[in-house]
């Protein structure tokens, strides 16, 4: 049961292939959430300050209408489009109190729970590798500061490092079952099980569009396009 003011994530299980799944998400609240205090340790204080700095910087860039921040926003939007579309979900798991896991009624709760666990552990490993890689690249990108002009490489590398850290922490929190999950079957999502046109490897644009309209999932088409599993010729 959802309480007033509670941060609830609505996550939808989407079948991509016969044995391949993606998790599309929508938030019940849009404002940025500050992470809860996790104790007085030096590490906890550092992470809280890092997350607060990341959120403030992200808000300033997103709200910029002109100047250097607006230019940075345009560049980041282009680069973010090529980032794993599941990464914002992993970061959002840091502050959610509850998940509403909405799955095709033909699939079943047990399968949904198993696939979500596999998804979390796969993403945790992915972001752990990202943390290591971007941390190792910091000295190299810092050296590029000696070149006149803005150091885009250092800024992007630092942005990715922080993003990986936040996504990793979100995944670990969910994998440790530190937030509740409510499983909700949905008949409309069954449409997507057979959405691969003619048994092909791509999801049918028309069927995905129909399902997204019925479920009011405005970002589903763009999400699936970014996963490269949506047939693009129908969506042009």
Keywords summarizing the entry:
236 residues; alpha/beta; 7 helices; 4 strands
Q: Could you explain how this protein is built, in words?
A:
50% of the residues lie in helices and 14% in strands. It has helices at 42-63, 67-80, 87-92, 109-143, 152-175, 205-215, 220-226; strands spanning 8-17, 20-27, 98-104, 180-186. It has a four-stranded mixed β-sheet with strand order 2-1-3-4, with helices on one face. α4 runs antiparallel to α5. The chain is globular, with a radius of gyration of 19 Å.
Q: How many angstroms does the end-to-end distance come to?
A: 40 Å
Shape: globular
**Mind telling me the C-alpha Rg?**
19 Å
- Write down how many β-strands occur, each being a DSSP E stretch of 2 or more residues: 4
Low-confidence parts, pLDDT < 50 over ≥5 residues? 30-38
* Beta-strand share of residues: 5-15%
Strand count, sense and barrel status of the largest sheet are: 4 strands, mixed
Order of helices and strands: EEHHHEHHEHH
- The side-by-side strand order for the widest beta sheet comes to 2-1-3-4
Count every helix, treating DSSP H or I runs of 4 or more residues as helices.
7
Query: Would you tell me the structural class of the helices and strands?
Result: alpha/beta
Write down the domain tally: 1
Mean pLDDT, all residues: 79
- Helix content range of the residues, please? 40-55%
Summarize the structure.
By secondary structure, the chain is an alpha/beta fold. The chain has one domain. The protein contains 7 helices and 4 strands.
């Amino acid at each position: 049961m959802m309480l007033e003011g509670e941060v609830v994530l609505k996550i939808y299980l989407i079948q991509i292939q016969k044995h391949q799944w993606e998790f599309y998400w929508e938030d019940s609240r849009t404002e940025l959430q500050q992470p809860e205090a996790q104790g007085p340790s030096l590490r906890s204080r550092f992470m809280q300050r890092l997350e607060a700095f990341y959120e403030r910087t992200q808000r300033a860039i997103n709200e910029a209408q002109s100047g250097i921040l607006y230019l940075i926003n345009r560049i980041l939007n282009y680069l973010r489009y090529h980032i794993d579309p599941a990464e914002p979900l992993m970061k959002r798991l840091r502050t959610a109190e509850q998940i509403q896991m909405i799955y095709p009624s033909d699939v079943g709760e047990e399968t949904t729970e198993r696939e979500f666990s596999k998804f979390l552990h796969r993403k945790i490993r992915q972001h752990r590798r990202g943390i290591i890689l971007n941390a190792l690249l910091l000295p190299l990108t810092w050296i590029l500061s000696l070149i006149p002009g803005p150091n885009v490489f250092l800024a992007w590398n630092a942005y990715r490092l922080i993003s990986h850290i936040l996504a990793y922490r979100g995944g670990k929190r969910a994998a440790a079952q530190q937030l509740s999950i409510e499983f909700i079957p949905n008949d409309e999502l069954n449409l997507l099980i057979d959405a691969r046109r003619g048994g092909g490897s791509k999801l049918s644009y028309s069927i995905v569009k129909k399902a997204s309209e019925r479920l009011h999932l405005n970002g589903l088409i763009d999400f699936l396009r970014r996963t490269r599993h949506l047939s693009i010729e129908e969506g042009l």
